[in-house]
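Exercise 7.
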Amino acid sequence: MRVIGGTFGGRRLLGPPRGAETRPTSDKVREAVFNVLGDLPDGARALDLFAGTGALGIEALSRGARHVTFVELDSGLCQTIETNLDNLEVEARLFHVHRRDVRRALKKLEGPFDLVFIDPPYGHLLEREALVLLAQPGMLSPGAQIVVEHASREQITLPQSVAGALAVTETRVYGDTSVTFVAPQSAAPSTEKEPQAMPVDAPTHANEAPRIAVYAGSFDPPTNGHFDIIRRGARLFDHLVVAVADNPRKQTLFTAAERMELLRSGLGDEAHKIEIDRIEGLLVDYAVKRGAVAIIRGLRAVADFEYEFQMKCMNHHLAPAVDTVFLMTAQEYFYVSSSLVKEVAGFGGDVSPFLPPGVRARLLERLAERKKSGAR
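Solution. The predicted structure, written as tokens, is:
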């Protein structure tokens, strides 16, 4: 990677450290973005959210920004940002690196900002939370520009609560990557386009970021008890992420990809309202990365509570801002678990009351395959 233009034009930048979960903005896309932005206003303050290696914010500094605030949660990437700035001999007064979750950072930062870059992990709707917080009074200058990078297969739709404050001005496609430009309504050019469609799960509480919850499990296979918790959790929060645990060291009947498909199949027409994702590592780390306000846990009996309470206390220690919400499983599923269902089905018992028809069919098919191959 290199700086494209300005004072540091042509200088090389360090890429992300090994193992970092980031996707640096390519040189081609950065060049195209700044061609669209044109000359930065005198004394511009820039904000680089989900900063990664800091390439976008550094490009702004190179082109005359008075100050850039970098926000990145990963400590290794924060070190990379600081190393890149140090290698370019950027004066310390011109930047600040915040190692913090974007949502928490935006609640503490003081504007106004003239230029904001939002480059979150693709497909997680994190840009929506950032836009809600940026729309608060005093965060943006009247002529501010917000640059949102996203996958070309995705469309950026503004949360309902900011529709009167922000407007999408244009979207440009660069292969698999697209860039959507957003501006305050007063600065957005008038347009004859149809009003933007709002997603069905847009929050109804104005001036607040959408409340995201995570419900995680192995779901091997997902039972009616799981689907009961999912549907109730989705009613309680603006956006529910069902996270399928993918642990290569744990033997499962179905792969993570298959379990994700089983969840979508079991949800049927409701699948579009709920995000299905894959998770590795600590659940609480994933919840923080997604900007979740809560982790949902299902309780089948009193015996579950002791373990779950212990986990809740540890998660609170690791991430105090993430709450744990316990939901009691519906009475008819108190005794149902994935392992018990697999055992009963393996001996020819009727498990139809405990699984959606499609999931049951896949389970019986897989058990038959395993039996035929002699696998346990």
